[in-house]
Design brief:
Organism (chains A, B): Dubosiella muris
Helix content of chain A: 25-40%
Number of domains of chain A: 2
Enzyme class (chains A, B): oxidoreductase
Largest sheet of chain A: 6 strands, parallel
Oligomer: homodimer
EC number (chains A, B): 1.2.1.11
CATH architecture of the largest domain in chain A: 2-Layer Sandwich
Order of helices and strands of chain A: EHEEEEEHEHEHEHHEEHEHEEH
Number of strands of chain A: 14
Structural class of chain A: alpha/beta
Shape of chain A: globular
Largest interface: A-B, 54 and 54 residues
Strand order of the largest sheet of chain A: 5-2-1-6-7-8
Protein name (chains A, B): Aspartate-semialdehyde dehydrogenase
Keywords (chains A, B): Oxidoreductase
Number of helices of chain A: 9
Chain lengths: ~325, ~325
């Protein structure tokens, strides 16, 4: 019997991409689109959007969650009550001990430990971890120093609108960001704590430890919003347990799941966010030994990934595929 | 008697800014604008541009050089022959042992050691070193991990034209960069060596050692071109000799020459390139202790500076002011 998959938050950038991913992958499921009352009756790709209510989850097997934390927390009990299994893209449950946090290329086995909720990690975290996982297996990663350069669509459709409107008129309203983002950079994503570290900057260490099952992982992160429409970029320094080797690094990355090696700088081959836009793979390049570490254990690289696809929707749909495969067995 | 100052390369972005800086600072000098034959007769701010020839330097006391390396190397012997003192913004002579490399806030004393040429450092290097100099004096800096996010005007007027034209039409020609820069990031500035490190990425360590008189300085740098018109931004990790203290760091920075402390993230106060555009000061903020260094000796910060002003023209004109003051004594 066909399973029913509901997308909660179907009208947002991630929700719409989830629907596209389901279709691209020819997944044999019935789809139900849920959103707020405001979007009720809207038609997306032939599906009529329904208002998300306590009754929405009756007869639904799986939910792909693409809502903000507060909205997610509202409907999650309804989905649990109805016996759904939820793959949730919000950050509300990511660090909950009862909720696996999964990047299928890295820790697909954790999916089986779920109690009804599986969390999708933060977009920058997914992109960085997919880029670095094969290197972690090869060299051991103990510390990462990361500067993220995050696209405006990380703030949803409002973020895209802000950039496009401000490009045309610098006095256009600021709806997604506190300052003009056109022709500018904003070194703030999320609120800051008393140490001056933003919520977004904490995520890579907190979520990385859980995904990699490595409580000793250290991540220093600086998150910067950039005037790019789609795809996040990250400049990453990796301090490893073993001495690193650039050729070996390229070798393991060229065989890594979800990764495309783009590393031939002499011929101007390196990752760029325009090239990963609308791609599921993470591009990795600019791989070089850090000559400022005399022990030779540090590697530098640059990576890009579409944060709406692999950083959110694709990752969630990959988890759903694993769940569906399990029920078929 | 009034001194005569020639600007070589007067029609470029840096050359034009040099003229503006001379005027803003009400410097009591005669000005002569020199450029290629193509620009001969062009009028800038009431000055008629002359063709740069072997005879151009007769009667000139000081030259502000704003040409590419090859052009600079062509005219430098002519300027030396004529007895000029040259403040040169090209990279041609920066690492020459006979040429002081100067950021006036840091090593103004080196100016006196000149033999006719004083070099202006690389723009990203000036901005980073101005941002970090007071911290180096306080805590000692032994290693820097830097990701630069460099504005298109670092590639001159062509870079600005590329961004502006590509914003209007994504098929607009690429004259300054190998790929579209509008809505994109390009992790290449300058050619790469066999280690995969670009020329621009080597500059901060090589030039930093000379300016700070510290041959042990280590800098790992990743340079990224961003779709910002003007002002470079840099995400910097500083590994220090002593344990760092955020309040002390803010304190010394608030008294540092050429620096404006912009560090109140809770109130959304941090450096942004749009805010430093057309400013001479370097803005520094996002200062926080790196919790991933268990020794407590590492500091993270974010800084921005107008690379055409402090990163080039203003720095050169400040050196010229010091030279003029010396002759008056």
């Amino acid at each position: 019997m066909k399973k029913t998959v509901a997308i909660a938050g179907a009208t947002g950038a991630v929700g719409q991409q989830m629907l596209e991913c389901l279709k691209e992958r020819n997944m044999d499921v019935d789809v139900k689109l849920l959103a707020s009352a405001r979007s009720k009756g809207k038609v997306i790709d032939g599906y009529v959007v329904e208002e998300l209510t306590p009754e929405s989850f009756q007869g639904v097997d799986y939910v792909l969650g693409a809502c903000e934390n507060d909205v997610t927390k509202m409907w999650m009990p309804w989905a649990m009550e109805a016996g759904c299994v939820v793959v949730d893209n919000s950050s509300a449950y990511r660090l909950d001990d009862n909720v696996p946090l999964v990047v299928p290329e890295i820790n697909a086995d954790d999916i089986a430990k779920n109690n009804g909720i599986i969390a999708n990690p933060n977009c920058s975290t997914i992109i960085a971890l997919v880029a670095c996982d094969a290197l972690k297996k090869e060299f051991g990663i103990r510390r990462m120093v990361v500067t993220t350069m995050q696209a405006v669509s990380g703030a949803g459709v409002k973020g895209i609108a802000d950039l496009e409107n401000q490009i045309k008129d610098e006095n256009a309203p600021k709806t997604a960001f506190p300052y003009q983002i056109a022709y500018n950079l904003i070194p703030q994503i999320g609120d800051f704590d008393e140490l001056g570290i933003s919520k977004e900057e904490w995520k890579m260490q907190n979520e990385g430890r859980k995904i990699w099952h490595d409580d000793d992982l250290l991540v220093n992160c600086t998150c910067v919003r950039v005037p790019v429409l789609r795809s996040h970029s990250e400049s990453i320094l990796l301090e490893c347990d073993k001495e690193v080797d650039v050729e070996k690094a390229k070798d393991v990355l060229s065989n890594a799941l979800g990764v495309q090696l783009k590393d031939d700088p002499q011929n101007k081959v390196y990752p760029m966010p325009l090239d990963t836009t609308n791609q599921d793979d993470v591009f990795v390049g600019r791989i070089r030994k850090d000559l400022t570490d005399p022990t030779g254990k540090t590697l530098s690289l640059f990576c890009c990934g579409d944060q709406i696809r692999k950083g959110a929707a694709t990752n969630a749909v990959q988890i759903l595929e694993k769940l569906l495969a399990q029920t078929e067995q």
